Amino acid sequence: MQAFFAYLERLDLVFLFLLFLLENAAIALVAVLLGFALDGLLPEMKRLISLKEIYWTCSTIFFNTLVTLTGYLLFKYGFIVFHLESSLLSIVIDFVVLIFAMDLLMYVFHRVIHQLSFVYRYHDLHHAYDTPTAISLFVLHPIEVLGFGSLWLLLLFAVDFSIYAVVIYLVLNVAMGIIGHLRKEFVPAALKHHECLQWLANTGFHVGHHQHEQHNFGFYTKVWDRLFGTLK
Ligand SMILES: [Zn+2]
Ligand SMILES: [Zn+2]
Fold first, then answer.
1. Environment class of residue 61 by beta-carbon count within 10 Å: exposed (0-12), middle (13-18) or buried (19+)?
2. On the chain, which terminus has fewer CB atoms closer than 10 Å, C or N?
């Protein structure tokens, strides 16, 4: 990991931007392909994806790149600190803290967005879908992308995490984004009534938010919706 950061240090701002742009574009492409594959809709992608969705996905990739670049520069100049060498236990603890802290921050941010009409008009773009597909995950107004990005950077600024926990969290963040925007339930029917599913988010949980906007504001867990009485 140190060697990777030493490599990034040698790059100029334009090259860094292009590298992060490529990274965010690759993440979006893999997420959309994987989501359509999980739904068994790969052959129908061309018919199901509109030009408007491609436009907003490109916009989200661009603004996510700005968030990535800002995060990297904050790290480079010491405003964000990562633990580069951590024990397995501290990686696990940091990962659990990241999940619950971001889930709570996103729950509050998301619920507030739904209460305030002057910001909801930006979030409304994402709510155009009551049966989302994987590309709906990236149909977000730049204000929303920068808002969620700022929450993320604020948490990294406030708390020093293991870099490995951060990487695992980012992978899970994309995975949960895909799972929440599928047409088919990701969790096998046999596990539908499992105790874990009373607390962890599944496809039906976030699709439920697209259909009932005053419920299911969480992203990774149902914990905060359960606690604050917004679970459907
Ligand atoms: Zn959604
Ligand atoms: Zn919403």
1. buried
2. N
Reported confidence tier of residue 136, pLDDT bands at 50, 70, 90: very high
pLDDT-derived band of residue 198, with 50, 70 and 90 as boundaries?
confident
Rounded distance between C-alpha atoms, residue 220 and residue 176, angstroms: 7
87 CA distance to ligand 1 middle (Å)? 35
Residue carrying the six token digits 């496809």 = 203
- Give the ligand at the shortest distance from the Cα of 131: 1
pLDDT surpasses 90 at 2: no
Distance CA 61, CA 22 (A): 9
Centre of ligand 1 from the C-alpha of residue 14, in Å = 32
What is the residue-wise DSSP string for 51-76? Answer: HHHHHHHHHHHHHHHHHHHHHHHHHH
Cα-to-chain-centroid distance, residue 21: 16
Q: CA 209, CA 211: separation in Å to the nearest integer? A: 5
Is residue 216 within 8 Å of 208, Cβ to Cβ? yes
Closest ligand to C-alpha of residue 123 is 2
Paired tokens of 134: 């994987």
Cβ neighbours for 7, distance < 8 A, ≥ 6 positions apart: none
pLDDT digits (tens, 9 = 90+) for 157-186: 999 999 999 999 999 999 999 999 999 999
